Structure formats: C-alpha cells, structure tokens
C-alpha cells in the first residue's frame, strides 16, 4: 500500500518529469491511497474498509470517506501496480496540515529529535507551494543528505568550461569543485556519485553526499549553495506534457478534455526505436470520475495535431466501467498509440451533471465538486538514475530507489465542477414559517379545548352574587341589632 498527503501541485514544466523524484514521488493534491490485497476476491472490499478506518484514525484525516464503493475504483491494467486485487482512491479536497504531520512523525524511530527529520520545520514546510509526505522508514544507523545536480543543470554548466576544453563532469567533481565559476558550496561533500550514460539524455547527473553524523551542536550541519552567476535551466521533461480542463457552460452539460503537447523530448527516442521509418509513442490514461458526473463514454473523440481523427486509429485498448448512482464511480483506461512526431493530441468526452439529495451536499457545496487527477504514464520510458558501482549504493535505500526502473508518469490538474445547488437558506425559512404557524394554530386549539365555558359562567355568577349579596346581609344584621336595643330600652 501507499498513502500520500500533498498540498499544491507539482509543476512538471519547471521542475521536470523524467526522473525518479518527479515520476515516483510527485503526487496529486490531497490524499491518495492504493493497496494490493493478498486475500480472496470476496474479502477485498471488507479489507479495504478496515484499512481506510485504521489509517484515518492513525493519521487524523478523513481517509474513512474512501470506504464507500462510490469513492474508490478497481484499476485493471493502466495503474502502475495494477493487478486483480488493487484498490485506488483519492480525496482531492483534503487539506493537509500539522495534524497530519505529527502522527506521521510518530512512525519514525526518533520522530523529529534526530536525523534528517530535524529539518522538518513546520512553518517553513507549510509555507511552500508544494509539499508531499509518504514512504516507508527503516531504522537507520546514520543520516545522509544528498545534493543532486540535474542533467539540465550540468549541461548548462558546461558552457563556462567549453572555452578551456574541460568537461563539466570533471570540473564539478574534482577536488576544486568549490571554486567552480558558477556556484559555491558552503560544506565539503563526503562522496560524489556520477551517473552512468543515459539513453534519453546527453548529459549526466551528479550527486553530492554529506554525512550528518560528522557534525555536532558545536559544529552544526549548515549546507548552502551560492550562485556566482545567473544560471537558468529546464529539467528534463516527459515526452508529452499533459493538462486537463473543462469545456462547455451551464449547470447541465459539459465535457472533459485531456491535452497532450510535445516537449521535443522524442527526437533521440525516434532514432533509437524507429522501425521501417515508423515510430510509435504509447500513452496510458487512467481517469476516475465521480458518479454525480455522468460521463458518456461513447462520445470519446480524438484530436491529433488539432485535427479530428478516428478513435480506432489511435486507441489500441480501452477499458470502461460506467458509474452507478450512489454506488460506484466511472473509470476509463485508455492506451494511445501516437506517432513520435506528434505535436499535440487531445481526448474529449462529454458528461451530464447529476442531482444530489440535500443531505449529500458537502458544507461548501457552492465551491464546487472535485474530479480527481488523471494519471498519464509512458510505459516505454523508465525513470532511473544508474550510478557507478560502489559498495555504498547497497547500503543507501535512497540510491537504491533511484536505480529502480519505474514508468514515467504524471498527474493532471484537479477539476472543479460546479453543480446545481439548492438555496440552503430556504429550508430554514420554510421550517421557521411552519413552526410559527403550527405554534399559533395548536396554541389556539389547545386553549379552546381546555376551556369550560359553562362552568366559568356559573362560577362568575356565583362570585358576583356573593359580592352583591353580602352588603344587604350586613345591613339587615345592623338594623336588627338597632331594633333590639330599642326594645330593651322600652
């Protein structure tokens, strides 16, 4: 399984996409979780539910929302670890904060008290445009920091040495590397690793290693790189740059478009893989759409170099799983075979916007609903950095990870789809009016039913009679006394 928390989006155009860091470690915004289960087929969904609830409590996140069958999917073959027992789910709108970082640090052997985890300063980390946390951790006896000079940067740094006939690799890896005319390092590296020749690039990467255990509180580890001259370079790009956007207007219908633009990377690949003058570039597309976005898969259209083409001419294989209302999302897996000299390609598919019940809307329904990122992978290309053989390569999990061949893949943007939302103030107004009317009605009705009019009239008459009949009685008693006193005097 793999779980990632990411804030922001990896900028493939500026930060590159054809290397192990961007291809294996760059993740989509929010939470991404995939797992492969070694259990019988009918136990997978129950195991997935237990896994999501466990991770939700462990990482203090809303991962338990992925338990519903309407939120996760079952990739068939386009997702990299795809097999019959894989489950995949994302939460694009999940916010990442320190509440997720603290539980993650508890899984580390020394938390943030030792090792590289000391560098995880929370204010600096969460002020960045992009940060992502995932991966496994092994109990390490030492910590090392690696500084990677990208292939494009090494190629750019060749220019100052061309006049003297020196190669960039010799100039950057010699003992006088700190006197390089382009930059200056504040700390002397302990080891230098050179990348072997790459079939996809003319230049090579250079890796500097710094051992943290050599430093102490009296002499802290403070690495810095100061540029002496302005240097601008571009990291190595994927064969095609992928982007996704919405088309159409209104709250009823629309279309999803996936655009692929050439990055001029396939020139060397064409000469090495062309057969009989023909060259094909394979592109795998994996896209999951929530059930309330009802996609019409038969409306799939393909555009190559801005011209509409027949779908069967460029789609080698396709797998579609239509969505079911409140049951499962829609899944589309496509294998494209494009000519290597293609400049642009695009896929469009139409959809209708569904209606939700009032209790199915989130608290911020007016913001819109998120469609998870689509995954674009290039199976014919593998991102890896093979360094010269050395005993330290086997002891370093990071360098071993760099040398693993992984397919080049990238994530598109998260789409924000506005759906028709009711006026949530109207239920409150209706409830208030109804309660007022019912209170007046039932209050008056109960008042009438509880009153006994005849008895009240008799009580009032008796009360009035008592008040009016007491004075004559007193007067009669007084006159009787006066008469009795007169008789006695006679």
UniProtKB/TrEMBL annotation:
InterPro entries given in the database record: PIG-T
Entry coiled-coil feature ranges: none
Any one GO BP annotation for this protein: attachment of GPI anchor to protein
Domain of life according to the entry: Eukaryota
A GO term from the CC aspect: GPI-anchor transamidase complex
Designated name of the protein: GPI transamidase component PIG-T
Organism: Gossypium barbadense
